[in-house]
Amino acid sequence: MFKFSLKQIAVFDAVASHESVSAAAKKLSMTQSAVSMSLSQLESVLDRPLFNRQGNRLVLSHWGHWLRPRAKRLLQDARQIEFGLHEQHLISGDLTLCSSQTAAKHLVPALISKIDSDFPELRIDLMIENTENVIEALLNYDCDLGIIEGRNTDSRLQQEHWLDDDLVVIASPNHPFAQYKQVTLAQLEQAKWVLREPGAGTRRIFDGAIHGLIDNIKVWKEYESIRVIKSLVANGSYLGCVPYLDVLPELESHQVIVLPTPQLNMQREISFIWRNDSGESPLRECFLSEARRLTRGRSFKPRKDNISA
């Protein structure tokens, strides 16, 4: 017989998520003393300390980090067994998705709407962060699945390509470069830029594209909001670099133009990532299958009529 219970595992997972006995107790609708006792019993039967106290926080120990993904898989399997035995939807439960801005704005809403229709018992909780923070959220167990821009180099995470979305250099139709058939690297170096903040996937791709080609670019301002960047470009003398998907409305209304910059390769990947140790997940696989279906056969490349002469 097992020496620990699912309830003790659930308590451990809640404390690990919140780094607090009181917050875990609130989430589980238990008293603090009951949570503390359950956690103490689990550490006793496992004969390992699962947390270290740092001030008012309970931080996972080495053994706690080892147990965390296994506890999550165990709880997920238990929920699937319970749903199956009660003849409920087998694709049922909560999936926390952390997405970068472009996908969250242009692709995720339609995807969640389709899942809500076809799998009403699968609830998607959405967080929106830049790529760097999406990766951090996954590593900290704050989400189950991430969507990032560009490549992930952390060996603890698995990555699956979803689609390609080019970055484009944009300017006002009144900008001096607007009439050029080709904008040179020297001209780009002299321009004033408004860009995404360091850590954003868009910024990583842009910095990688100019590396070794442009020594000193004049970054005037950095913003988290692509909307702010587009507005500044449309109404000023700046250049910006944004995802093609994000600038389509402004291109169609002729508020901005795409500059021809053939020397810059700014194709990027939008990908799903998840922890290697998360094991098989019917909820994740359901979400990925619907995402592949949503974008099959669609193109996210700049059209020639959207690029200035």
UniProtKB/TrEMBL annotation:
Record-annotated HTH lysR-type domain positions: 4-61
Classification via InterPro entries: LysR_HTH_N (IPR000847), LysR_subst-bd (IPR005119), WH-like_DNA-bd_sf (IPR036388), WH_DNA-bd_sf (IPR036390)
Stored PROSITE patterns: HTH_LYSR
Full protein name: LysR family transcriptional regulator
Pfam families: HTH_1 (PF00126), LysR_substrate (PF03466)
Record has Transcription as a keyword: yes
The keyword Mitochondrion is assigned to this record: no
Keywords, comma-separated and alphabetical: DNA-binding, Transcription, Transcription regulation
GO molecular function: DNA-binding transcription factor activity; transcription cis-regulatory region binding
Family assignment from sequence similarity: Belongs to the LysR transcriptional regulatory family.
